[in-house]
Structure formats: structure tokens, C-alpha cells
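Troubleshooting entry. Yesterday's outputs looked truncated, so today I'm pasting the complete records for two proteins to confirm everything comes through intact. If either block looks cut off, that's the bug. Protein one:
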Amino acid sequence: MFTKFKFTRRQTENYFKAASRDLKIARQSDVPEVIFRFSYDALLKLAIVVCAQTNLRVKSRRGHHIELIEKLAALLKDSEIGIIGDEMRLKRNLDLYGGGILISQKQASEYLEWVRKVFSKAERYLKKNPKLPI
């Protein structure tokens, strides 16, 4: 699912900016579905950044979101990322393919706060690698 790939500094920075932008949109919204969706997208983009730091690029195939979440959990040494990230993925899939689901304000806020914590952990991880000036 992953291939070795040497990302440029600019590519990695752009991925990080995109992840940060999605997190900002989630933080600024008061619509639970928007908060949830942008939090999930930010998590996936953050996983791409962390993988890029280790010269791994995910192939866009069936199941690649699962692989991204699992790789992020492994690289950050945090099994909770795999569990909650997969829970978010399943809810997103139910919403997209299963006729929609309702996300409460409380759920959306909890997911957002959790993604913010994952961002903090990832930023500490990324600071150890000189490719990204965070």
C-alpha cells in the first residue's frame, strides 16, 4: 500500500499547511458535520505528512485510509489513533455511503479535541526531523 518516495520540502510543507487549514476550518465552524468532516480530513492529511517524513507515500487504493491511520498510529506509537481514527473513518463512510448519519455537537467537539491532541503529538514527532520547519 505504501511506496518509498522522496518528498521535497515544499511538498511536505504543502501537505502540512493543508492539514492545518482543515483543522482551522473545523475549529471555526459551529456545524457538527463540518467539524467532524474537516477534523477527519485533517487527520488523514496529517498522516500523509508524517508518512512523507519517513519517505513513504500511500497509494490511492481501496483501504488506503485504513492504512494511513494505522501507519500514523504506528509512527507516533499511539494505538488510540488506530482505534479512534478508524471509528471516525467508519462514521464518515456511513455518512457518505449509508444514507447519512447525524453527528451531535458533543461528538463533533470531542473528535475535534482529540484530533488537536494528535496534531500536537505529530508536531513533536515532526520537529525531530529537520525537513519541516514547524
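Protein two, checking that the full record survives here as well:
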Amino acid sequence: MFFNVTRRTSDAVAALQVSPVLGVVLVEFASGHAYEYTGVSRRAIANLLLNPNMSLGFWVNQNCIRPERTQRLDLNFYTTDGVNRGAAGFIAG
């Protein structure tokens, strides 16, 4: 089960979903690229969910970005009128 992290001001992160049970984080960056991070600390995920003032970009850099945890998601999602929303359709729903 994934939770949407409350939208916060971030120059780097456009959308973020976390699964505290699985230790998985889905991130869509402002560039439009989406990544899946596995093996993320469940404690760090809980801390993020409980602290609404925490910087998303800082949190992702500190807890997710490691080569062994990273998998780039090449996703294209189209709306019913044919507009390509990129990864935003996956992460933001």
C-alpha cells in the first residue's frame, strides 16, 4: 500500500509516494523522470510522513539515492483525451 506524501514546495521533487511496509519509494522529479527506490528505511519513511515541514528533495537525497536502490521507471500515461502525462499519471494518479 502506497501513501501520497503531502505536497510541499520543492524544486526537485514533483510527486512522492511511499510504502512504509515494503520500504519502497516512488519519486517523480521536476524533470519528469520517475524512479523507484527499494530497501529504504521504514523509520525514515515514517519520519517523513510525520513531519510535514521536511524538505522532500533533502529527504530523497539522504534516504533514497544509492545505486543499489535505484530503478528508473520509463512510464508514459495518457489521459482520455490523449495527453501524455508522463510519470505523473502513475505517481499522482
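Both blocks look complete. Sanity check on protein two: The helical segments are 42-50, 56-63, 88-91.
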